[in-house]
Specification:
A three-stranded antiparallel sheet has the order 1-3-2. It is elongated. With 107 residues, it is of the alpha+beta class. Helices cover 64% and strands 13% of the residues. The protein starts with 6 loop residues before the first helix and ends with a helix. The longest helix is centred in the last third of the chain and has 31 residues, at 76-106.
């Protein structure tokens, strides 16, 4: 079930970003995420539910625990939104580099 919340709303919450960062490194169970984040088990579970509804995480049962994995495809919306800003910074940094090289050559 997909949520009607915007991906930006979902990732604006710092604890959810922390969970995504941890899952980017490796899959984790709820208990592992509790230990790594310092949050309560109900808190971690709440954030995982929201992330799962948004399609940002998937869960698989392994033995007697549920392991969560990052599913980054929904983040493509954020990536598309950031593209013009990356180009802006790339162009501005290139201009700064040219200016600094010119200044260095004049010294």
């Amino acid at each position: 079930m997909k949520t009607t919340r915007s991906i930006f709303d979902i990732i604006s919450e710092p604890n959810r970003r922390l969970i995504l960062d941890l899952l980017r490194k490796k899959a984790n169970s709820v208990n592992e995420l509790v230990q790594l984040t310092g949050m309560s088990q109900p808190g971690v579970s709440k954030h995982l539910r929201i992330l799962k509804e948004a399609g940002l995480v998937e869960v698989q049962s392994e033995a007697q625990k549920r392991v969560y994995y990052l599913c980054p495809l929904p983040l493509s919306e954020v990536d598309k939104w950031l593209e013009p800003y990356r180009n802006f910074w790339k162009d501005n940094l290139a201009s700064l580099d040219e200016f600094l090289e010119k200044e260095e050559a004049e010294d």
